[in-house]
Task: inverse folding
């Protein structure tokens, strides 16, 4: 199931993608399921959603062109939890880029590096990444697999990690590199408004038989910059979930960005930062394609 959020008549709705060009508008089922993706996740409404998806009423099916699809979770409950340096070759390119504030001689971390992005950084597919929000003119892209948590969870072992996952999405962890470097802690460089494109949908976990086989490809103006498999993660998804829940409680709707592979802008000499007019496209097999322009 591909679960989305969209704007219709100036109101936010939840929906299910129905074929290539249509959406099942869940506002027509208000007495059965919430018309809000965060609430759907919190109430674990998948069984009812599958019933609706199997036999939608004709009036609930609308055309994509009639609405504006936005981020599947347009207003996250909490900051997006992110993982840094989680692909070997990216860790090495970052370490040698001159933008790594870590004084360690080791490029590849011994433990997962966890940071967050502000909720106000989230934008949807086809929305513009506002370059004006980086005063240092050093905007970089980072294509990533996003995990959506489905259950309140603490002290989860690796063997049970996939039990708490509601679904997956695509995230662009857009970064103001100079801000990231100047402030050492990454929060400010990662959190400018509009610096977290997400979507187009949350694909429920039951549709992904083996997440490690998913492939991520990032293109800038049609040029392939990143091409990697989720299997290449240094710290796999079970390790990330076990690590995070060992110290904090995850709640339904929490979003984890699992890290970006080699090929980001600072990996080039000189760096290839994004500029106004650029188009960034991130595709993950089975999840769709996230497209955004830089304004």
Result:
């Amino acid at each position: 199931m591909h679960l989305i959020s969209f704007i219709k008549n100036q109101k936010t709705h939840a929906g299910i993608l129905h074929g290539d060009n249509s959406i099942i508008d869940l506002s027509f089922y208000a007495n059965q399921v919430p018309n809000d993706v965060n609430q759907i996740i919190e109430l674990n409404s998948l069984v009812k959603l599958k019933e609706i998806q199997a036999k939608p009423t004709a009036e609930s099916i609308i055309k994509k062109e009639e609405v504006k699809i936005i981020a599947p979770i347009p207003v996250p409950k909490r900051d997006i939890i992110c993982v840094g340096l989680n692909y070997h070759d990216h860790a090495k390119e970052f370490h040698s880029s001159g933008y790594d504030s870590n004084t360690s001689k080791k490029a590849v971390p011994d433990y997962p590096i966890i940071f967050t992005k502000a909720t106000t950084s989230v934008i949807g597919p086809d929305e513009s990444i506002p370059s004006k929000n980086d005063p240092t003119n050093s905007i970089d892209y980072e294509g990533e697999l996003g995990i959506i948590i489905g259950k309140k969870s603490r002290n989860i072992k690796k063997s049970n990690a996939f039990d708490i996952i509601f679904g997956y999405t695509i995230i662009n962890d857009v970064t103001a590199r100079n801000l990231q470097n100047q402030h050492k802690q990454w929060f400010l460089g990662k959190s400018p408004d509009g610096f977290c494109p997400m979507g187009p949908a949350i694909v429920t976990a039951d549709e992904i038989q083996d997440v490690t086989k998913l492939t991520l490809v990032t293109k800038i103006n049609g040029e392939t910059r990143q091409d990697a498999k989720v299997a290449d993660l240094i710290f796999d998804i079970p390790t990330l979930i076990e690590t995070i829940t060992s110290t904090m409680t995850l709640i339904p709707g929490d979003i984890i960005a699992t890290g970006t592979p080699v090929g980001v802008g600072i990996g080039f000499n000189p760096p290839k930062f994004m500029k106004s007019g650029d188009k960034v496209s991130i595709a993950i097999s089975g999840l769709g394609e996230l497209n955004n322009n830089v304004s």
